[in-house]
Each structure stands twice: as structure tokens, then as C-alpha cells.
Design a protein that fits this description.
Blueprint lengths: L5 H20 L2 H17 L10 H23 L8 H5 L9 H15 L3 H12 L4 H8 L3 H20 L7 H6 L4 H8 L1
Amino acid sequence: MTGQDLPSLLPGLLPRLWAFALRITGDRHDAEDLVQRACVHALERVHQWQPGSSALSWMFSIVHTTWINEIRARRVRSRGSLAWDEADVDAIPDFQASTPEELASCHQVFGAVDRLPEAQRLVLLLVAVEGMSYQEAAEVLDVPIGTVMSRLSRARRTIGDQFRNPEGQPRTAERTLRGGSAAGAREEDA
């Protein structure tokens, strides 16, 4: 594929780009603006696209960079925040969930992901949700692959801890060090 193919590829990429933008912005209107700006940037800089590389990875990188620039601009203007609004999470439909229990579980997962530090959240979204390889995520975020692996590991551990210890109890290893039984810890981890 070449840069000349990008205009014909963009319509097929828009749903995934918009979903990614919605996850990182937390706002439907910001996501729409972000995708539009990213597409304009891509079309203006189509000559920078490496032949043979993934158009989707390249576009994710542009979306991410464009959002970082927007955050910096908002900080300068002092008129925005990075916090997700719970109403925005509620606005994301989950057609897979059919029971109230499944919907509640989805909201718990969204909440756990939302509480992650932004760097971990972005890596988790790219790898677990968008299905990118570690290498692709590293290229999108412009960080070493080891950083992607480390952030993903910490994100998974943090989310797992939130579901294993919903009342904010210390992790199993911490309880064992405080005098809890090792046998009890193994039962809980199983």
C-alpha cells in the first residue's frame, strides 16, 4: 500500500479510530473532533506513511499524538480536564450484555479501566481492546516495547487486584507478610 491508498482506506478505519478516540477522550464530541483532526493530519502528511506499514497503527499514532497536543493546549488555556464523566461511559452501548448482571459487570470493568493511570490505560486499550501487538502499541505510543509490556502488566495486576479485593483489602502477599496464613493465600489465588 502507498500513500495514495490512504483516502480509500480511511472510511473502513473510522469506526475503530472513533472507538479509540472515545476511550481516550471520554467525550463523544471530543472524539469526533479528534478523529476529524487526525484524518486531516494524515491526509496532509500522507507522504510520511511508511510503505508496507499498517495504516491502522499509523492512524492510532496520529490520534494519540493529536490528543496529547490537545491536552497540552487545554492546559495552556486552563479550560479542560482529563477526567472521564460517568455519563460518557454510560453512553457507550454494549450489545453483547443482555442481562442486568452483565451490564453491571461491564460498568465495573469500565470503572476499573478508568481508574488506571493514563499511560497504563492507553496501553491496555491498544493491546487488549484494539488487538495490537506489543510492537505496534510501542510504535503508536513512541515508547520501547519493554515499557509497553511493563505498563500492560501493571494495568492487568491493578485491575485484577480491584476485582479480587473489592473492599480495598491489601493484596495477598501483603496479608501473608502481616501474619496471615500462606495456605489461605494460596486458596484465594486459585
